TrEMBL record:
Enzyme Commission code: 2.6.1.42
Catalytic EC class: transferase
Name listed for the protein in its UniProt record: Branched-chain-amino-acid aminotransferase
Cofactor(s) essential for the protein: pyridoxal 5'-phosphate
UniProt function note: Acts on leucine, isoleucine and valine.
MF (Gene Ontology): branched-chain-amino-acid transaminase activity
Residues recorded as bearing N6-(pyridoxal phosphate)lysine in the entry: 205
UniProt keyword annotations, A-Z: Amino-acid biosynthesis, Aminotransferase, Branched-chain amino acid biosynthesis, Pyridoxal phosphate, Transferase
InterPro entries from the UniProt entry: Aminotrans_IV, Aminotrans_IV_CS, Aminotransferase-like, B_amino_transII, BCAT-like_C, BCAT-like_N, BCAT_family
Coiled coil: none
NCBIfam families: ilvE_II, PRK13357.1
Sequence intervals crossing the membrane: none
GO BP terms: isoleucine biosynthetic process; L-leucine biosynthetic process; L-valine biosynthetic process
Amino acid sequence: MQAETPRLTFDIKPNTNPMPEADRLKAFENLGFGTLFSDHMAVIRWSEGKGWHSAEVTARAPFPIDPASSVLHYAQEIFEGMKAYRTSDGRAVLFRPEQNAHRFNESARRMAMPELPEEAFLEAVEKLVRLDAKWIPKGDGASLYLRPFMFASENFLGVRPSKEYIFCVIASPVGPYFKGGAKPVSIWVSEHYTRAAPGGTGAAKCGGNYAASLVAQAEAYAKGCDQVVFLDAAEHKWVEELGGMNVFFVFEDGSIVTPPLGGTILPGITRKSLISLAREEGVTVHEKPYSFEEWKADVASGKLKEAFACGTAAVVAAIGTVKYPEGEFQIGGGQNGPVTTKLRDALVGIQRGQSNDRHGWLHVIDGI
Ligand SMILES: *Cc1c(COP(=O)(O)O)cnc(C)c1O
């Protein structure tokens, strides 16, 4: 469903009632995650026959939604998560945004939704960040989280792909994802619920995957854990990923293992970037299946030294404690390990413009 859309021109309509400066700065003093929103949103509409049209950046406002809107019934919805950073030398940058644009279309194909030309995705994000440049918070761990998403908006109850969609980007200034800051997280191994099955939607960034993971996440909270880790659906044996983060294991010989992509794991951009950074440091990185039984045994024998989770929102989070129905264990004495810290610093150094961006991963938004 490649839309044959001519180049879109965005209508820019600045918000006539933006949040007063003093209120914004006050809110910046205590940033959470995803609770505060900028003044604008970018919107592009799609309809069958017409393709993508009506691109605009306008005041953030609710969408009127008909009770028969198909997203409410069949959950045709996908999203992305990315961040705009203010570097230490004052530039506004995005990290590998073309990867998000590309993955968005892979998700769109899986969900039978129209693809959005990558340049339109990037332009929507960039135009929004330009208009909301003052919403990029400064300081350690702070950024403007960007949420591009698309949903089916046709009013129709039949079961088939919608003939109308809305693409939108909203922005939320955020602080660190986990309240504990850089403290290692505790995770709950879901032995009952799974996230994604072969042939399913595990590799697509769709809201439905998250809907299905929430009961397991709730179980994790009930067990006193920060996050849930899922095992594979076929054998309930192989470690796959967290609800919204990929997972890595670090061994005593210095090698690293991360579960392989293959349809049931979300291909994280943080995952891919960390694999590159580690390999450039001479670290052996295996993308291979790793079972929960091996994990337990390797912790007991001392072979496994560190484990961490990664994603755009939380960046890199050491896993300190692992709980499962029959017991629990600690990794690295529940502390941040040296390899985890080194990889996090290498990645954050690039994102914050503090180290040489030798891969050309930063996309600078000029003039803001
Ligand atoms: C978004 C996401 C990730 C992390 O991807 P990044 O591109 O690194 O942010 C990992 N797992 C799931 C399920 C996700 O939705």
